Amino acid sequence: MPPVSQAVLLSWSVPPAASFALAVTAVVYLRGWVRLRRAGVPFVPLWRAVCFLLGLLTLWVALASPCDTFSAFVLTAHMLQHMLLMMVAPPLILLGAPLVPLVRGLPAFAAREFAGPFLNWRVAKQVGNALIHPAVALLLLGGALFAWHTPRLYELALASGSWHEVEHACFFAASLIFWWPVIQPWPSRPRGPRWGMVPYLLAADVENTVMSAILVFSDRLLYPSYAAMPRLFGFSAVHDQAAAGALMWVMGSMAFTIPAMLIAVECLQGKRGRRQISLPGRRVTWLRVRWPIAFTRRFPPGRWNSQPREALSFLLLFAVTGLYLAHLAAAPSDDDDQALRFRGQSGAFAVSVFAPSGDLETGASDFSVLVQDANSQGVLRDATVDLYAQEVAGPQRTGPVRATSEDAENKLLQSASLNLPAEGEWKVSIVVRRGAQRADFSLPVRVVRPEGGKSLPWPYLVLLGFSVVLWLTYYSRNRAARTPGFAQALPGKSTAHVP
């Protein structure tokens, strides 16, 4: 395998927070799936668990694979990432019938006090039913598809790692909503005739075709950032845009038309589109199910019983998991939010330098360098790169530092951390050597002092807000439980289902 191809395949940008969240989701689902199987629930066979795990794996691959690493360089890689997020991962996850296994896999205290009541909350059911209405789901998918592919929003996602994550979240959430009426994961049931999913899917294919055709047949480059980026694989940015549109056209059409044909065949054969699922003695509608979870009654207050133990263990688990997830989400990624700061050519080398956008803060700053042959534009991974910095109006000098590809997510780049100790104007010099050939490049940067009084990172604020919501929910439920006459209204004597 050529060294460049090998470097591309090794360019994984593993997101710590997303990887941890997906791993926790898989553990919770498997715990619930095992408990349901042991209880004899027939609606969660092994193939559903396999589909769910494959969906999570596909989601992780979309976020961590070279598709993400090269999304700012190659539009085709970015489009493949979007297709995995929209056309592959959501259907697989929904085929796993995730709702009940995820609730059943939670700690008993969380399932009883939070998840179960929320899913049976009248407002939640109304909002959920409104979102999965076919007309609404189709509009949401089309809105997300067209909005994020407009030049302004697309460029915003390319320039900011945070907005890139928001884009991915919108695509994934809209796709989950879209595929829900098609798959109808247990314990939901269709709201209309099964043949109605055929025009539903074909309408989505029309949306996908229109967006694809815009990319394929456009006579100009829609996203200027790709014109500024160095070309890595020998084709122009316009050809890359057309290839991305063709990929979207083919993968999207297959994802929509194949299920439409299968549903049409089922309907023509006189079969029901899917088995109507109901629990014994219960009619099941969307989120209107008496969960197969027996919730223990509250014991008299003041005793050291199972409920306080459950609450304490849940509190400890929630604190550890939440704080660790917030820590991972707040940590900056090596290559996120780096911008192209310089492109130049000297002798046999063409160099592109990436660094944080705007003014650099005093201290260590990461620089990444791509070295290419000036004539063929082939990537030269065997070139050595040294960086050093000189204060323009002062005597301070730092470096040289040898850049390597070991710590870089993109293995075609060579990265190094360069210390800039004082504020002011600096000149960063890049020395490239390959055999007897040498070239020198320089990049002016402005260094400023970090802003004082750092605020709490947003993941911790989200965790704090979520904790407050959970506490208010628990407090309101338990205060209602202590009101006169409430205990007599609870069904049963030894167990109680979610109301």
Descriptive account of the structure:
The protein has 499 residues and is an alpha+beta fold. It has 2 domains: 9-295, no CATH class; 338-448, Sandwich (Immunoglobulin-like). It contains 17 helices and 11 strands. It has helices at residues 3-9, 16-38, 46-64, 66-69, 75-95, 99-105, 108-119, 122-131, 134-148, 151-159, 161-183, 197-217, 225-228, 237-268, 306-330, 458-481, 486-489, and strands at residues 295-296, 338-346, 349-356, 360-361, 363-373, 384-391, 397-403, 414-420, 424-434, 437-448, 495-496. The strands form 3 sheets. It has a 5-stranded mixed sheet with strand order 4-10-9-6-7, with no helix packed on it. The longest helix has 32 residues, at 237-268. It is globular, with a radius of gyration of 27 Å. The chain starts with a helix and ends with a strand. Residues 271-305 and 485-499 have low confidence and may be disordered.
Strand content: 15-25%
Mind describing the biggest β-sheet? 5 strands, mixed
Rounded to an integer in angstroms, the radius of gyration calculated over CA atoms is 27 Å
- Oligomeric composition of the shown chains: single chain
Distance between the termini: 61 Å
The computed structural class is: alpha+beta
Placed side by side, the strands forming the largest sheet appear as 4-10-9-6-7
Look at the structure and give the mean pLDDT.
84
Poorly predicted tracts of residues:
271-305, 485-499
Number of strands: 11
Order of helices and strands: HHHHHHHHHHHHHHEHEEEEEEEEEHHE
Count of helix runs = 17
Give the overall form.
Answer: globular
- Number of domains in the coordinates? 2
Helix content: 40-55%
